[in-house]
Amino acid sequence: MAKIKSLEDLMKIKDDAVKNLKLRETGKRGKIVVAMGTCGIAAGAKDTFKAVVEELSDKDIDDISVVQSGCFGLCDAEPTIEVKLEGSEPIVYGHVTPEQAKRIINQHIVNGKVVGDLIIKRGEL
Amino acid sequence: MPVVENTILICAGGACISAGEKSVKETLEEKLQEYSLENVIKVVETGCMGACDLGPIMVIYPEGVFYQKVEPKDVSKIVEEHLLKGRVVNDLLYKGDKGDLTIKPQENIPFFTEQVKIATRNLGVIDPLSIEEYIARDGYFALRKVLLEMTPEAVIEELKKSELRGRGGAGFPTYMKWTLARNSESDTKYVICNADEGDPGAFMDRAVLEGDPHAIVEAMTIAAYVIGAEKGFVYCRAEYPLAIERLTIAINKAKEYGLLGNNIMDTGFSFDLEIRIGAGAFVCGEETALINSIEGKRGVPRLKPPYPSDKGLWGKPTLNNNVETYANIAPIIRNGGEWFAQYGVEGARGTKVFALAGKVKNTGLVEVPFGTSLRKLVFEIGGGIPNGKKMKAVQTGGPSGGCIPMEYIDTPITYDNLKSLGAIVGSGGLIIMDEDDCMVDVAKFFLEFTVEESCGQCTPCREGTKQMHEIMKKITSGEGEMEDLDKLKELGQYIMDTSLCGLGQTAPQPVISTMKYFWEEYLAHIDEKKCPAKRCKALTRVVIDKEKCVGCTACARVCPVNCISGEVRKPHEIDPDICTRCGSCITVCRFNAIDKVSP
Amino acid sequence: MLSLTECPGCKEKYKELEEFISGVKNEPGILINVLHKAQELFGYLSEETQQFVADKLEVPLSRVYGVVTFYNFFSTKPKGKNQIKVCLGTACYVKGADKVMQRLLDDLKVGMEEPTEDGLFSVHAVRCLGACSMAPVVLVGERDFYGRVTPDEASKIIEKYRRNENGKN
Measured between CA atoms, how close is C130 to chain A, in angstroms? Predict the structure, then answer.
């Protein structure tokens, strides 16, 4: 990576990163963000992360990326995952056990219906 | 794959199962098959929904209709009326406190709508391992602005306008700290980040380091430029391995991008950052003890003055701020000091991150403007006290803080307000206690902590806290006398007046503040030999009601210390000398025959 | 020169520690980092290991010992292979961490900090782990966090690690 030496360099990285965050430019249909702070991990986020990855691969879904993030604060609802699909508002789900993660993938990612009972927030964090 | 129309959740928590959840579920599945609905309606067993006295519970989505006390005979009505005809079965509906007909999913609750996120702006939003995502959220733009467009004085001026005060405990104005360190003459200076978050109950610094490590790298580089330092240390406690790992990655990435290290952004300014890992000593949160620890020594506090801004790390001028303080720096630079000062109230500007823990529904981290009331924090954002219990106190500021009782719940949170209540904002840990918590026991707990964590350097703290702890042990074991309370007050005053560092000077606070607000609890322990909260082991017994006990042996089987005896189908008995008051037997008894009593 | 105990693998460990020390020796205030490394390698800091560190860093043993005994994180006694750490921070305490602790000690039939007979476990009380929202919290080793632990779950955690150990043999 070249070093950042000017405002232009910094702007370019920002623009590229913002584009990457918008999904269509990356050829992906969406992404799943798993909160992986210590509190999330204590609540079982590692197993949830694993279940998400496995279920996506079992269902041969390759247009959804899986990333991790830190704790967004509502630790009580951990493990939490956020589902961002291109063209629709992000949904944050709480209390996502591995079982529930599979349910979210099948109902939300595959069938396009949000899983009402697990939603803790609609819209950007 | 058929499209699932409805999801029916059945609570399969312990209480619902014992109320007959399994047979409800079986009947439901039969009914669904009867109407060929099994492929379009999904039945999910969930963990405990928390409304255990309403079980068995069934919730039907997408509507979110909540049915209570569902019996197998009710199932066909629900299937025929609700699922087939779309009519809600009114007589099974749960009616909430306000007569609401349904419980809505927990979305967009006050937890989200009442927060103002500045220090925690990126938490949960970005991938902490990606410097690009940090930059996408305007990361490193403040650093660029400072290095290319601002003089150190101009940066300090913005901090002054922002009225930012240290978020680690003492609340010292940040601009003043930076000015003092800048004005000290020396060829070598250091910048330190105190990430030794030791107050039990506070975890915002951990969350920031884990979720947004670049925010700290950027802010420390700005600080180094302002005071004229080329080397910085993050002193992080060893208990936070994930934070250390992510911060290490962030530092390396920033170096790779030329945002840290030699010749930052081609401006000729250089700054290097290193992580030093603590080794488990609470006193190292005190800045001079922390400096000793970075120097590889025993972490004992130094005499002040000289202050670290004159003689700090290796005798050189040193600037030390905590994680949350640094997390506010870049937004202040980008948006201006006045922008930050629009939040909060006189004397306490901006926002503060609070960690909600203990007996509160929404445990977690929240960032709100100063001046927000404790009530709003605990009962709106925090969702109140679980299990229908009453709040007794909010403990703030860890072992240096105090307990605030329910009568002051409407107090707006500011540094001064909490101080006048005998508590402190401290690092922002709020531990909520309910009627089951004994305030005398809590005070003893904190003293135990300080006794253990006192570095031993000065006598009042080392010996004084030990003596106070002995008296507290006496009181909680039912051997206290009235004169003990006077001794506690007197000793506490001596320790506060004569200790060398903040740890000792504040160590008696938990006792002093609980004596102030919960005097009658102390009296109950001494006069009546009674623990009203039934928490103190020596003053509490677990007893089996002979009338109610049917001799099912469930309690005897679950007791971890085998202290329950009795023949099958005859009343059982607990040996109080062996019993640890763990309460497992109370939970398992289906006849409500076991209870805790304080004589 | 100190003669080192002939224990299995110790020679290699001392060699690794020596290499680590020679890499950082000139950095000021590095003693605590070196002790972290030594404890990571040996599991605890014996008198012999402390002497080794003192020799290599060229500082008096008394200074090394002073630092080792000051910080809770360093141990001069061997610990169990799986260290079960029970957080006794305030939030965990009000949520019943003492009962979790009691159950672990009862199940393993040991006292605090004392390894089990088979050396597989030891139970330690630790300061706030910063996962207060998940109270009470138990940490096994450095990374395996368990939140909202009840005494019954504490027993299950032991069983889980015991099964893993047996699986290995």
Answer: 8
